[in-house]
Amino acid sequence: MTQPFHVLGVDPGFAKIGFSVVRMSATEMVPVRMGLIETKKSDKKLKVLASDDNTRRGREIVNSLDEVLDGYHIHAICAESKSFPRNASAAAKVAIFWGILIKTAVLLNVPILQASPQLIKRRMCSKANATKKEVQDACDHMFGPELIHRLVKGIAGSKLEHPYDGLAAVVACSDSEALCLARRMVAG
Fold first, then answer.
1. Which of 66, 93, 68 is nearest to 82 (CA)?
2. In Å, how far are 100, 107, 128, 151, 177 from 133, measured between CA atoms?
3. Are 94 and 86 in contact (CB under 8 A)?
4. How far apart are CA 137 and CA 158, in angstroms?
5. Residue 183: its H or E element
6. CA–CA gap between residue 86 and residue 64 (Å, rounded)
7. Residue 82: its pLDDT value, please?
8. Among residues 34, 7, 12, 30, which one has the least CA distance to residue 179?
9. pLDDT by residue (tens digit) across 16-42?
10. How many CA atoms lie within 13 A of 131 on its CB side?
């Protein structure tokens, strides 16, 4: 019996990282887990250096990703591509996250596939300027609102865009050559 083919979808961030784990077959995609990894800055009263705090938060992300992946045989990672912000502090945090994601992919020996925000919106809503709400509605329509709402239960409405974006990244990458090849290799 072959292992189920699972893909990790990620909405990259540092304070908020949305994720979804999607089981794929030749004919269907089914989200099996969705969630949010959050990290917070240390209290200013603690006088912690920003670099030390970013290291701590990076460790929290690594540990949380390990928890998310436990029990799933991940065959690919799909992520929304990010351009680096002009603010040096924000750029450093984005770089830390991408370093963590690349290391995760190396350890799992899987590819990272990326889709631009515009490609994700076009794939989900047939227009590159779709709103976050339209992307969420498209995910609900594609997979069924009952399933999705059960998977995101407990996440505040203001933070739902992140796990939805992780799911939409998987959809946007689902017909990429690399993912199709990986699915064929596992199936056969």
1. 93
2. 29, 34, 14, 17, 29
3. no
4. 15
5. helix 177-187
6. 28
7. 77
8. 7
9. 999 999 999 877 899 999 999 999 887
10. 3
Residue 59, φ and ψ in degrees, nearest 5: -60, -40
User: CA-CA distance, 88 to 94, in Å (whole number)?
Assistant: 10
Dihedral class, residue 109 (left if φ above 0, else alpha if ψ from -120 to 50, else beta) = left
User: Which H/E stretch holds residue 146?
Assistant: helix 145-151
**Cα dihedral angle (98, 130, 141, 114), rounded to 10 degrees?**
-20
Residue with tokens 């290391």: 103
Q: Which residue reads 């370093």 in tokens? A: 99
Residue 78 · residue 7 · CB < 8 Å: yes
CA 75 to chain centre: 14
C-alpha span between 61 and 66 (Å, rounded): 8
List the domains of the chain with CATH numbers: 5-187 (3.30.420.10)
Stretch (H or E) spanning 59: helix 50-69
Return the ∠ at Cα 61 (arms to 174 and 109), rounded to 5°: 45
Least confident stretch, 9-13, 21-25, 52-56, 108-112? 52-56
CB 114 within 8 A of CB 79: yes
pTM of this prediction?
0.91
